[in-house]
Design a protein that fits this description.
By secondary structure, the chain is α+β, with helices and mostly antiparallel strands. 61% of the residues lie in helices and 14% in strands. It has 9 helices and 6 strands; from the N terminus they run ααααββββββααααα.
Length: 394
């Protein structure tokens, strides 16, 4: 099982990495960043992909291993010599447990630290871009904000005679005029702020037009939402908190759940989802390993023998269904539509129940294999469709 698992892990991690690398290259291509810093940023992405690829890889690896055993008639020989299917489960569970422990270490300890370093590095790049993009006498765009500065001091970075157009609310645009300003970086909360001095805000239109004068006004520059829209607490987002800190924060919010604000309730939901997610993915390795065993066993010969390639395809469909269900559960949990503990564990429960059902059918020899049963069902349906449509008489 190990070598198919390792090859699957490398391939899947590489594919996920290629998707992410385009985003990182876009961030650094216009910056004066050396290759070592870029490589360091890329390395922080790998743990996040490992926690996704490990459950997928163990499923594919076990399917390939048992598919080969089935093709070489070794499963038949093992069972004919008195080895039951339950005894075949034991080494699979042992291997899955080892992978599950590695996944648990990754999700609880490695990935949070890597997420923090990655998001901090991206913020620093965005900070460099914001400072370097401000050109005097030019309308500089930062998402929905347009900033014009007549003069920018090279030594202090002070901006003079500013005009800011704010289109965040399209139905209520704002225009700010200030005598001077300063770009301030808050690395702890990862926020870029343009602090304005001595000016006015012109807001609305027609009868709802308002003018507000100010001595000091802060305008948050639009930057990439590294925390997926949540507010950073203690300088970290939920996916960056170490497991012990996440558990403590979750416990403190739960103790005052009846009296906390709506923002804290949303944060509580995110913490619950993140806490359960870090345990769900390691346990998925065990659930998917049993499913991989069931999918891998197939008749060595016969009309319903699919072969390893078709069984792996069926396994990939199972993976897609699992992660779609997990994504749906994550969305429901974050919106507090359903209890986080229930929806987050539902994909694993469904996968485990399906695996136990398949194991029972195969061990009792009612099915020669899941692929055989699926192929027979498809052929039966096609025959019925032909009979209903009269195609068989043609």
């Amino acid at each position: 099982m190990f070598f198919p698992f390792l090859i699957s892990l490398l391939v899947l991690t590489g594919l996920l990495f290629l998707v992410r690398i385009l985003r990182l290259v876009e961030l650094v291509v216009h910056q004066n960043v050396n290759i070592l810093e870029v490589g360091l940023l890329f390395s922080y992405v790998v743990p996040r992909f490992f926690e996704i690829a490990l459950p997928m890889s163990i499923l594919i690896g076990i399917i390939v291993a048992f598919g080969r055993l089935s093709a070489d008639s070794e499963i038949v020989v093992l069972r004919a010599s008195g080895l039951s299917l339950n005894q075949l489960v034991a080494p699979v569970l042992l291997f899955a447990t080892l992978v599950s422990i590695f996944t648990l270490i990754t999700t609880c300890f490695v990935t949070p630290r890597a997420n923090y370093q990655l998001n901090l590095g991206i913020f620093r790049l965005a900070q460099m871009k914001a400072h370097s993009s401000l050109v005097p006498g030019v309308f500089n765009e930062f998402g929905p904000l347009t900033v014009y500065a007549e003069n920018i001091s090279n030594s202090s970075g002070k901006l003079e005679h500013l005009l800011i157009s704010d289109q965040i609310q399209e139905d209520r645009p704002k225009t700010s005029i200030a005598k001077s300003g300063q770009l301030i970086s808050d690395e702890k909360n990862r926020q870029l702020t343009l602090r304005l001095y001595e000016g006015s805000i012109y807001e609305g239109s027609h009868k709802n037009f308002n003018i507000t004068s100010f001595d000091i006004e802060n305008v948050n520059l639009s930057s990439e939402q590294l925390g997926e829209g949540e507010e950073a607490r203690d300088g970290k987002y939920s996916n960056e908190l170490p497991m012990n800190q996440l558990s403590t924060s979750l416990k403190n919010l739960q103790m005052s759940e009846d009296s906390i604000s709506s923002d804290d309730l949303k944060l509580l939901s995110r913490y619950k989802v993140e806490w359960h997610r870090r345990l769900v993915l390691p346990m998925a390795c065990i659930c998917l390993s049993l499913l991989g065993l069931c999918l891998g066993i197939q008749p060595s010969r016969g009309e319903y023998s699919w072969g390893t390639s078709m069984t792996v395809t069926l396994g990939i469909l199972v993976i897609v269904a699992y992660y779609l269900l997990l994504a749906l559960a994550t969305a429901l949990g974050k919106q507090a539509i359903a209890p986080a503990w229930f929806v987050m564990w539902l994909p694993n429960i469904a996968c485990l129940a399906l695996s136990l059902f398949f194991l029972k059918q195969i061990s009792s020899e009612r099915w020669l294999g899941v692929g055989q049963k699926v192929a027979g069902t498809i052929e039966s349906l096609v025959s019925r469709i032909k009979i209903l449509t009269g195609y068989s008489n043609v």
